[in-house]
Write a structure and sequence with these properties.
Helices cover 35% and strands 18% of the residues. The protein has helices at residues 2-5, 25-34, 50-60, 75-82, 98-106, 136-145, 161-168, 187-199, and strands at 9-13, 40-45, 64-67, 87-93, 112-116, 150-152, 172-173, 180-181, 184-185, 208-209. Helix 3 packs parallel to helix 4 and helix 5 packs parallel to helix 6.
Length: 210
């Protein structure tokens, strides 16, 4: 359904402490095997150490790792050495201006950043799918400061994505809860979201969609 709507990438959610969309690794591997060329497969992983993340990629076969929590120094380098053909996308949860420093520190070690609205600092971590927006002015600052592409996530819907694109001008946008109903993808919401994206921003702005 997502590919038919025009998605440039699929976000496949492995085990998480909270949030929607989690599926078993066996199902992720089955989906990856059927995705046509040209559509990226993002594994959303909450694992915190490099060996566990490397093992997940090998079990699922995805071409991109979306790391939703903060890793120890050196972990990105270890993952890249073990998986040279796999792209690394680090999620930064924008809770305040301190996200700028975190983004600048990690950007040299990854292929892209994804700015989301989770909260890793609470007892049951929120690492995505919150349905909340964050301060897009901070996201704009990060986008202008880092040398890698930036995806924007966090509470995006057909109603607010044009303004989000105008303010941040991201490389792409990532969505989950904004196109779901009753725990499943909603074809009507997907279509509305893609229409909003197609009309948003400058003519040359063509964000990819997760």
């Amino acid at each position: 359904m997502a590919i038919d709507a025009g998605a440039a990438a699929l976000g496949l959610v492995s085990k998480m402490p909270s949030g929607p969309g989690v599926i078993a690794e066996e199902m992720i591997a089955r989906i990856v095997a059927q995705v046509p060329p040209g559509v990226a497969t993002f594994l959303l992983t909450s694992e915190l150490d490099a060996p566990a993340i490397i093992a997940q990629q090998k079990r699922t076969g995805v071409n991109t790792l979306q790391i939703v929590d903060r890793l120890e120094p050196g972990a990105h380098r270890e993952i890249r050495a073990a998986l040279p053909g796999v792209a690394l996308v680090q999620v930064i949860h924008v809770r305040g201006p301190e996200a700028n420093e975190e983004a600048r520190d990690v950007a040299p070690h990854v292929d892209a950043l994804l700015l989301d609205s989770g909260n890793p600092g609470i007892p049951v971590k929120e690492l995505g799918g919150t349905g909340r927006t964050h301060d897009w002015s901070i996201s704009r600052q990060i986008r202008e400061a880092v040398p890698v592409p930036v995806f924007l996530a966090g509470g995006l819907t057909a109603a607010n994505v044009p303004e989000a694109i105008r303010q941040v001008e991201p490389f792409g946008v990532d969505l989950c809860s904004g196109v779901r109903s009753g725990g499943r993808l909603d074809a009507g919401k997907l279509a509305a979201f893609f229409r909003a994206v197609s009309m948003a921003g400058r003519a040359e702005t063509k964000p990819a969609i997760l």
